[in-house]
Amino acid sequence: MTNGTLSYEAGTWHVADLKPHISIRFKQVFQGIQYGSTPPFALRDRPDLAADLDWFMQRYPLHMSDEAKARLGVQLTEHANVQARIEELRRPDYVPGIRQGFKEPEQAEGYQLRAAEMLRSTGRLLLMDDVGLGKTVSFLASVADGWGLPAAVVVQPHLSTQWVTEYIQRFTHLSAVEVKDRNVRDLPAADIYVFRYSNIAAWADYADTLGIKTVCFDEVQELRHGNSTSKGHGAKAFCAAAEYRIGLTATPIYNYGSEIWNVVEFIAPGALGTWMEFQINWCTSHGSHWIVKDPAALGAFMIDEGIALRRTNEDEEVARSLPPLSKVVTEVGWNEGDAQTDRELQLRLAQRVLSGHFHDRGLAARELDVMLRQETGIAKARSVAAYVRTLVESGEPVLLAGWHRAVYDIWRDALGDLSPIMFTGSETQPQKRKAKAAFLAGDTGLMIMSLRSGAGLDGLQSVCAHAVYGELDWSPQVHTQFTGRLRRRGQDRRVTAHFLHVDGGSDPVIMSTLGLKASQSHGILNPFADLESSTPQDDTRMRKLAKSVLEAAENG
Question: How far apart, in whole angstroms, are the C-alpha atoms of residue 367 and residue 364?
Fold first, then answer.
């Protein structure tokens, strides 16, 4: 006796003729099916989904076509083999058998070789190791002996030269071509082609002519907005041309958990279902965003399925290679003379955020955000400068984080005698390389860096152990990335992150909102770790900011 039919065609399972009560059960198991729909149901083919179908049919047998029987057998075998291999790689006593192709005396750590073997075994990997654990070395270990070549690596613009000279040429015997422009042409033969996120859209139609077998996306959070961006379009073409895919990031989520779907879709298409299935199974609506209901469960699923791999600084296998971290949270003074803001305009914007029409609310929110964050940065800029001066004059080089140009101007004026150098969004790539060289050479003890401009930057840890946050970002993962510029392999001192805030402006609201974002990313990155606290998810950050403005006005 059967309870329906199962057929397979062109990458899709078709389930039909289910009795009503079995259809209800089926939709309870496969929750990506749209609510209220009736058979036939179509499901995208994946090894894990085939395993779920097989499990369901143990209770409710379905009549299978010959094609379905054959495909189910193939996918079940594939799923079992991958799961067994993943479990083998996770064993504490596992000894990696990969042959290192590195130059002497360079050598990959055991945990880096595990990641390399994971990629070789599954063909897809979102490597989410903590900042500073050498994700780049893990990727190079997978291809250094010739496996998966030729490869394409896509990086942020300021890191392309670093990838060639400080990684590929330093660690391997492989040849590399750095593609710096959008001028599409025939490229010389190479083992690794290094592209930039800023130019891959121009090379999209050329990707399949390179014969690449592997594509690596460094700082893959750049693709969190999906195919709707030009770099997303280019990345999709490179993925289609490659057999193996890997994404490197310590911070796949900058804002809300739904961004992880876009990232995973590039590395392991379909692994989280369709966008609609992902929303139904994993998310809940939060204003105009989608929040993952159970980040820990999603993180555990991705790790169990071999989609992702995550090692932290606290893991025994890696802890010995990293310096300890201290955090100092200090309230500094507010200089009302520097912060000259139109209070009446602030109040009007806040009222529009809370009660205006949809379009007006959006415009008012963006304007209020810019106004208050800049005002806050300016108001505490001189206090921040005094704090930084104390560190630098005591002989400690400082990496100072900011965001607004007006704030940078105050810092440069107040600290001009310390010869600060800039590494922000306004400098060209050559200027950034020159600034890095000057800091490493000891020509200055102060580098001012934009919160979001230094992702992937390596080498600063050899001279600096103090990161000072003169302005705060809405996302805690940006702070993690920034501190990771100093807390990484090669740092031989304790790293200290100094968070300087004021009791006014946007700082109190940002610090509160960071709890929501931290809980989203924390669960996905560390699915088996408990959060000490969670922030209620009952309001948006801009409504909180607007309310704080109105409450401050009421209190005089």
Answer: 5
